[in-house]
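FAQ

Q: What does a record look like?
A: Structure on top, sequence underneath. For example:
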């Protein structure tokens, strides 16, 4: 019988059958005097005892504002200590925290507020150059939600004062009424087509996922984790915060947005043992002119996720940043999010060419176009089943049924292969395939080849319209600092190395790539920009 592309994460450690609040209570009892949260930009520090006291006050304040179990509490802000308090306080009272992308403007904001029917919105006054108060005022005449709004900079104290209305006994009664399968969080997916969908996650989903992410990196109360990725995204609030608090580790937050030097400074001064980021973040630090001024000797582990990592970057992260136990994660918001993760002692080839093996208590399989499990090594769609699969899309049964089948398998839309040892390689998106003259082309394959050029710092490949072939291949290239590179040189590099039809027809040299706040490359925007610049709008 053929060896099939199915794997189940067996584990001696049982799933945690408790709420996020109950888990935090246990951690506070064990590690109360240890530092829990540091926010460098706000000059904020709290031990686990202090974090517990502050979430208690906020939880009571939210109840004082009338927030009931199941009510939606929106958080619209970048990384700051108040965001973390809202995350744990809402969990303790059974509210459903709705993450709102800090980059949203009026259209995205109004959609998230109305689709989730937000009862209370907690918002910053601004982010970068965007005035949040002005945006809220613009949509208020047309939007029934939120029912109430708290602007952090001017009304946070008022929210905390409302805690006086609620007794400790009332909070305890609320906490005891909760179930770990209750919804606790709504995260809106990127929405590359149409409007975003609200992945609804339970205590059980994200508590266990955060715990087992930390387990793969051997987290303990002695770890200090630098989290420069955004909280509104699962990378920040689950791979970051939940992985820390389930182990008594310290969350080190640099500031509201990623700046390579502030991250390096925080790692040095706070003696961080773990660092999170997407490959472009690591590249930005490694290539920073002041890189050599900082001390990375305290680092040992971390996470690289979001997109493939060039092997040279991985080598430098391990050697120059001392992250010998760095891991690579794969997942999606709908799976809490991590389904696979590399081991801390995997060889470098597996860390750059695969996304590791299945997570504990999770099942994965790779299926062909008929839905049958494919043999090992044969590409197909990656599916996930288990505790990590979301409850569903908020108030959207149709789209939920479109991604979760009757056997509770969640279909990722990612094309993958599984080797004989169970390591998974992501080779592209089902919808990301470029079809040129009937030939199916994987952008990932071309990206992996081009990144091997010594002058290429980063590269992404897209398809653009073509009257002759339907689609043509285009590469956006970022040149490594100190090098010169042009189209002719890259064409020579490709000749006789990859199939002629895979060689990009168009090239664009850039300093940066369009990406979401969470660091995901926006290929849809790249295609739109290129189509316009090349004058291809009229081609279907």
């Amino acid at each position: 019988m053929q060896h099939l592309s199915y794997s189940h994460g067996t584990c001696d450690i049982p799933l945690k059958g408790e709420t996020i609040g109950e888990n935090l209570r246990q951690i506070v009892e064990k590690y109360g005097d240890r530092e829990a949260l540091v926010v460098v930009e706000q000059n904020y520090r709290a031990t686990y005892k202090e974090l517990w006291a502050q979430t208690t006050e906020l939880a009571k304040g939210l109840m004082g504002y009338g927030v009931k179990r199941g009510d939606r509490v929106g958080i619209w802000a970048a990384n700051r200590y108040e965001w973390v308090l809202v995350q744990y306080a809402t969990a303790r009272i059974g509210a459903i925290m709705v993450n709102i992308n800090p980059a949203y403007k009026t259209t995205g904001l109004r959609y998230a507020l109305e689709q989730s029917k937000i009862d209370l919105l907690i918002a910053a006054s601004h982010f970068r150059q965007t005035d949040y108060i002005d945006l809220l005022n613009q949509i208020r005449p047309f939007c029934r939600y939120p029912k109430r709004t708290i602007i952090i900079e001017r009304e946070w104290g008022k929210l905390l004062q409302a805690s006086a209305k609620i007794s400790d006994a009332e909070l305890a009664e609320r906490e005891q009424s909760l179930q770990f399968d209750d919804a606790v969080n709504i995260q809106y997916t990127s929405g590359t087509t149409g409007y975003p969908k609200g992945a609804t996650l339970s205590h059980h989903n994200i508590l266990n996922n955060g715990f087992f992410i930390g387990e793969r990196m051997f987290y303990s109360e002695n770890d200090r984790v630098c989290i420069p990725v955004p909280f509104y995204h699962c990378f920040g609030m689950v791979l970051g915060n939940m992985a820390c608090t389930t182990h008594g580790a310290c969350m080190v937050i640099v500031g509201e947005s990623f700046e390579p030097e502030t991250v390096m400074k925080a790692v040095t001064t706070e003696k961080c043992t773990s660092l999170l980021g997407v490959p472009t973040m690591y590249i930005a630090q490694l290539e920073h002119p002041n890189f050599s001024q900082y001390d990375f000797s305290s680092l040992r582990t971390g996470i690289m996720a979001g997109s493939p990592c060039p092997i040279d970057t991985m080598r430098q992260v391990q050697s120059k940043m001392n992250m010998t136990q760095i891991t690579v994660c794969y997942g999606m918001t709908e799976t809490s999010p991590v389904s696979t993760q590399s081991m801390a002692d995997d060889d470098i080839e597996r860390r750059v060419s695969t996304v590791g093996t299945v997570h504990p208590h999770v099942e994965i399989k790779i299926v062909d176009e008929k839905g049958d499990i494919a043999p090992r090594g044969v590409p197909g769609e990656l599916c996930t089943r288990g505790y990590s699969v979301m409850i569903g899309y908020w108030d959207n049964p149709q789209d939920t049924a479109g991604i979760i089948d009757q056997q509770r398998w969640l279909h990722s839309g990612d094309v993958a292969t599984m080797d004989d040892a169970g390591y998974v390689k992501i080779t592209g998106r089902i919808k990301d395939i470029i079809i040129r003259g009937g030939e199916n082309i994987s952008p990932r394959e071309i990206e992996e080849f081009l990144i091997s050029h010594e002058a290429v710092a980063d590269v992404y490949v897209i398809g653009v319209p073509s009257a002759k072939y339907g689609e043509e291949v285009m590469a956006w290239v970022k040149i490594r600092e100190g090098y010169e590179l042009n189209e002719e040189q890259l064409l020579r590099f490709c000749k006789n190395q990859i199939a002629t039809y895979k060689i990009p027809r168009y090239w664009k040299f850039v300093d940066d790539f369009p990406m979401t706040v969470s660091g995901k490359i926006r290929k849809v925007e790249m295609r739109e920009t290129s189509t316009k610049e090349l004058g291809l709008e009229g081609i279907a």
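Q: Is there anything notable about this one?
A: The two ends are 45 Å apart (CA to CA).
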